[in-house]
Amino acid sequence: MKAILLAGGAGTRLRPLTFNTPKPVVPVFNRPLLLYQLDLLRQVPLLDEVILSLNYQPSRIKELLGDGHDLGLKLRYVVEPTPLGTAGALKYAQRYLDETTIVFNGDVLSQVDLPSIVQFHHERAARATIVLTPVEDPSAYGLVETDANANVQRFLEKPTGDQITCNTINAGIYVIETDALDRIPDETNWSTERRFFPELIEHNERFLAFVSSGYWIDIGTPNKYRQVHHDIMDGLFLAPPFDNQPAGTALIAKSAKIDKGVKVEGPCFIDEGVVVNAGSRIGPYTVLGRECTVKDNVQLDGSIVWPHCQIDPGANLVDVILGHDCQIGKDLVLRPGTILGDKSVVTENDSSGA
């Protein structure tokens, strides 16, 4: 059995963070996003290869993940010549797939029980199985309606209040019999949700839903990207590096250098090689990537700072996200919600930081 991760998107909703870093390898703490999905796929005993369907900056992803040997999985990279949509990407990779394929959307993090989903798919002799997750506010999503026997009835895109008949949405995880992809035309932009799945319903193919109430999040926006860090630190999503830590842990790498008098309030994460100078405060839900330097009297709260950044004396950052190699000038106060791309420099006289 093989799995395919649809990781070809440009991550436009996370810009400017994704101008130089493809979304699949955006760091969650000190791990690329894709590693959390590979953790989940390792649960499936018969899985022997994971195919990464790429288009945007594929070489960056290959450099970080390699052949998968160190991850305990064989990885194959398939690069689309042009963006082909979610179903078009599956069709393009079809020649590498076995009879049954697990499909993951590239920006989903979840704790679903994949072996049970595969078993359900096979026991019910489904052509395709879609994982659904319940949400509190269905109006913000496309709904998936099912009958009492878990047969998928229809997809309803962003319904109005009077159209809401259920609270289950597409979780972006599927199990598909690979020959069902035969109906997709070659080298054509084709949508799984708008074309492929509705055609299964139209042709009365056995298309089933598996409802999972486990943790699920789409991290494609800055707010959701922040939230997944909070959820991991709070134990709502059991994942590295906090999966074996008690609530409220301030997780500090051994090689980090924290001066005496620095106030560190958990939960937070301070990676390898970080230096924090005297008088600074590292507040709850702060993430400091490797080899960052935090000078004297800096205040950090709820901010995510990617590796190799420097924050100069007296700066104050609340709910800020900084890309790689940024420099924040002396005494600057950045507005909550500020997001800066790689190598940004904000100086003392830059009004954008006031």
Report on this structure.
The chain is of the alpha/beta class and 354 residues long. The protein has six helices and 30 strands. A seven-stranded mixed beta sheet has the order 5-4-1-6-11-8-12, sandwiched between helices. A six-stranded parallel beta sheet has the order 14-17-20-23-26-29. Strands 15-18-21-24-27-30 form a six-stranded parallel beta sheet, with no helix packed on it. Strand 2 and strand 3 form a beta hairpin. Helix 3 packs across helix 5. It is elongated. The mean pLDDT is 89.
Beta-strand fraction estimate: 25-35%
Strands side by side in the biggest sheet:
5-4-1-6-11-8-12
The whole-angstrom Rg is 22 Å
| Mean pLDDT across residues | 89
Query: Count of helices?
Result: 6
* Contiguous runs where pLDDT drops below 50 for at least 5 residues: none
**Measured distance between first and last alpha carbons:** 54 Å
Number of strands: 30
Q: Helicity range of the residues?
A: 10-25%
The gross shape turns out to be elongated
Overall SS class: alpha/beta
Biggest sheet architecture: 7 strands, mixed
